[in-house]
Amino acid sequence: MTNQDKHVAELTRDHSDHQQLLDQDTLISVKNVKKYFPVKGGILKRTVGHIKAVDDVSFDIKEGETLGVVGESGSGKSTLGRVILRLLEPTDGRILFEGADIAHIGNRKMREHRKNMQIVFQDPLASLNPKMSVGELIEEPLLVQTSATKAERKQKSIELLEKVGLRASDRTKYPHEFSGGQRQRISIARALALNPKFVICDEPVSALDVSIQAQVLNLMKDLQDEFGLTYLFIAHDLGVVKHISDRVAVMYLGRIAEIAPKDEIYKNPKHPYTQALLTSIPVVDTGEDTIQREKVKISGELPSPADPPSGCTFRTRCPFVHDRCAAERPELKETENGHYVACHLYT
Ligand code: SF4
User: Fold this and answer.
1) CA-CA distances (angstroms) from residue 170 to 136, 212, 330?
2) pTM listed for this prediction
3) Of 322, 331, 347, which is best to mutate to test ligand 1, by the most ligand atoms within 8 angstroms of its C-beta?
């Protein structure tokens, strides 16, 4: 195949991808995305290896959908979120937002897309500038990214404060004057200032008391319904994403172990890692709906992403490990309608 033929094939592939996206109302499509961090060593500080924080991850998210991404610390879920927003540069792969590949575009073009792609961080105290008033914090994106007048910016910040359950008079206060839950509401208002289509929620309730978590999750769900938002919701436990997600992806050591519609993953988890994560969630007895699960326990720590195990990276902790697991890496395969799992038990 000549270079020109390859180019035409690539363009054709892009076009068919794009068409497929439009057909399926897909807002964002992540294709074979990798993020490797170099490990330097020796006197000359040469690259002696790589930390594979995100390793060949692919999924789509439809408009208005919430994809929950779950995994323990070090699974690569937060890095994935930052790569999608291009806060970190991807090492490889494609990120299609509304059909346009944003994985390697320049800063100026990316700025246009950023209006539609926002993030809410775990720790609002760290992400909100303590020297800025709440009004300034919410209006800052409008000041930088739009031509809205001062009066329009003020009006928008008041509207957003009220939408997130705070008062117009809170505009003049500073982040330290609020509780953790209220600060996260301010972060959400700031993230919505530019009317984004897509919001990455990076453990937005992990630092909050359990009683406050439910309030913030309900608020996020209401805002999603009102503004038609699409969420990528990152959390370290399956309990948190249960009520807000339409589908759930479970990550382990930079890769997706399992992805399925929410009901499927909670009622019929297939990957041993997902089963173990669900074992650690307390089961509430709700009568006939109570799900009786086999208890799957795992031991040991997450291996280093700089030196992952061969074959299945979960094999050092898996109670069902067998010979094939060390020799061959399981690929993510569809086992039932929309239910994908990367495990040799299913192939
Ligand atoms: S591939 Fe093997 S080690 Fe990996 S999860 Fe499946 S059974 Fe366990």
Assistant:
1) 11, 19, 52
2) 0.88
3) 322
